[in-house]
Amino acid sequence: TLTAVRKMTKRDVFLEKDQIMNLLMFLPIWDGKVPQPAILKPKPLWTGKQLFSLIIPGNVNVIRTHFT
């Protein structure tokens, strides 16, 4: 699961609208709003980080204390 998160949030991961919608429709807390795409031309693309931000609830805080 952590491997999938790492792969999804890499800098070179971009998703098209149909991919975003297919993933978000399984999310029970999704409010139906899709954020603005990170790239508009030549076609709208969303980053994996944007998708991950929609999946994680807003009240989650992460504090890193150790750096490896």
List the helices and strands and how they pair.
Elements: H1 2-8, E1 14-15, H2 17-24, E2 46-47, H3 48-55
Antiparallel strand pairs: 1-2
Highlighted features:
68 residues, mainly alpha, Dihydrolipoamide Transferase, two-stranded antiparallel sheet, DNA-dir_RpoC_beta_prime, nucleotidyltransferase, RNA_pol_Rpb1_3, DNA-directed RNA polymerase
Mean pLDDT: 87
Number of domains: 1
Number of continuous helical runs? 3
Q: Strand percentage, roughly?
A: 5-15%
Classify the helix fraction into a percent range: 25-40%
Overall 3D shape: globular
Unreliable segments (pLDDT under 50, ≥5 consecutive)? none
Describe the strand arrangement of the main beta sheet, using strand numbers. 1-2
Q: Biggest β-sheet, characterized?
A: 2 strands, antiparallel
The arrangement of helices and strands along the chain is HEHEH
CATH architecture: Irregular
Record field, number of beta strands? 2
